[in-house]
Amino acid sequence: MLRRLLFSTLALAPIVIGLHYVADLGATTEFVLAALALIPLAWIIGEATEHAAEHTGPGIGGFLNATFGNAPELIIALLAVHEGLTEVVRGSLTGSVVGNLLLVLGFSLLAGGRGEIDRWSTFMSLGALAIAVTLLLVPSVPSWDGDPDRHSIAVISVPVSLALLVLYVVATWYSLRRHRLMHVSSDEEIEAWSLRQSLGVLAVATVATALVAEVLVGSLETFADKLGLSQFFVAAVIVAIVGNAAEHGGAVLVAFRGKIRLAAEIALASSAQVAVFLIPAVALLSWLIEPLALAFRPVELGALAASTALVGVTLADGRSSRLKGLLLLAAYVIVAIAFYAAGDR
Fold it and tell me: CA dist 298 to 6, 91, 269, 273, 308, Å?
């Protein structure tokens, strides 16, 4: 049912792109339609990546999952860099990590109920997050005084980004030794697509995502102004949720089917992946456009640190429950309120 719905809504992408060039819909309408169009695109990218991994093996498959699984967020971030919306970039990345940790994991625990989780994998992900938050303090703390986007902060961000990527490679290597695949597997028996077909779908979906993301980013400022919301809040909450929507739904569905262990691993691995892969990748690729400083605000780093600590304490016994899920969801609401109150810098 869900797969059919997502397949049918793929038509939204060409509709949104076409209407953007031939009709004057208004920024608010364009933002909403583009956000909705990104959800099935994110899903089809994940599907194609999973099929491609069947042919490439777990090593290259893991790399494909990391690269293309985060394609919507990566494209949105780079387009925002091009538009000079640095707070939007940092906010969407922070929101993605916190969203996976609290929102996705919370809904997964709520849907799955009681069960056991993989403590080793849990604390592997949380350890990577803790290291990432610590490293991000290096460029962030100096940015709290003066212009956060000054060139010197962007320069400091480069070695921090490289260190995070090294951490990602090491963590992924250890994880792949322990797990053959790190992605969601369907309960349905589906014949794998050919490698050529998988890569073709990836290419088309990535191009479509870039075009839809351009519409989204271009309408974000007007959308935020009309609703009286800060660009930071829109990026950290709305854009972050949209960029991960298909993956989020997949994790919750897996938990509902009773695979709470797998669902928890998806949510935690995804949050760690954004922190140690996507954030440094955006920072390094931004030098091809405009250098991005990893100048995160205290509210962002505080949310990251608190979320990591809360999940660690909540899952320390290696067991899940609906009550723990509700606790994480309540924490996400508090973080969202904090992001709303923080406003733009």
Answer: 38, 12, 24, 21, 15
